[in-house]
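Suppose you are handed a protein chain with no further information: no name, no annotation, nothing but its sequence. What can you learn? This example shows the usual starting point.
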Amino acid sequence: MLKLMHTHTPKRVFSGLQPTGNLTLGNYLGAIMNWVKMQNEYECIFCLVDQHAITLPHDPKQLRQNLLTNLAAYLACGLDPEKSIIFNQASVSAHAELAWIFSCITPLGWLNRMTQFKEKAGKDRENASLGLYSYPVLMAADILLYHATHIPVGDDQIQHIELARDIAGAFNRRFGNEYFKLPNAITHKIATRIMSLQDGTKKMSKSDPSDLARINLIDDNDTIAKKIKKAKTDAIGEIYYDKENRPEISNLLTIYATLENKSIEEVSAKLSGFNNAKFKDALSELLIEKLSPIRTNINDLVKNEDYLLSVFESGKEKANEIAAKTINQVKEIVGFIL
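A reasonable first move is to predict its three-dimensional structure. Written in structure tokens, the prediction is:
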């Protein structure tokens, strides 16, 4: 049996978002803002996972536009193509190839435990696509294809990182080869998960039917102020954090604290004596201050499609350098003739 050991990069990050709509404040605070900081500490690979985006019905023209707009948002938020590899998943065919190989060693029982499939498929599970059911296997391929060591994720994705570790271990055992090392999840303490402005128990989502539930990174100042003004709170006149009993006000406090780069305790003390209206005014001002430059940059970048396509092309070439080596070695281990 062929023995291959991969020489691992000490610290390599992989993460990505689905291009299923405009990126939101939740994407920024929960993911991208942390990615920007990581660029100076890790070798970083950031992807727009367009193959994951087609697990539900989609409009092809809108998907292409979302890819360009989301790339513009990545760049506007501070991701640097000179520091990080930035590309779209479908441009590197090894993702799908490795996913197929992994699907042949992944027990159905492991996938049956994935809670996100149950949530996304809902009551219509019999009509859900195979892609939606098996997309955690593709996610494992995304990560392991690059031998990523650190995976920044929200709490809702921890189960999928655990599955990626299980699949890596299953591959190594099946072929008697310690080829894949196990990736580690990174979660960030404050803004792991930003919630809906209309329901503090639900994650802020690009796909929420109500646009009032989210702040889009391309929202203008008036829209931001309107959405915060209409954000759900409660009848208690004080501002303090209590996630269990006051999920909506706690979510707004989390947003404020993360934008200020301060702890919940610090901002709670700062906002002592504020009522809901005064707090919402302060939060609106802070959001407008922080998001206006990002929105301006996005609007400028989307006008330059040639530049955005060149960033994708450069990222694809760099990603393929790593991916091609991995998939060829995996094929040799499996026994394929190349």
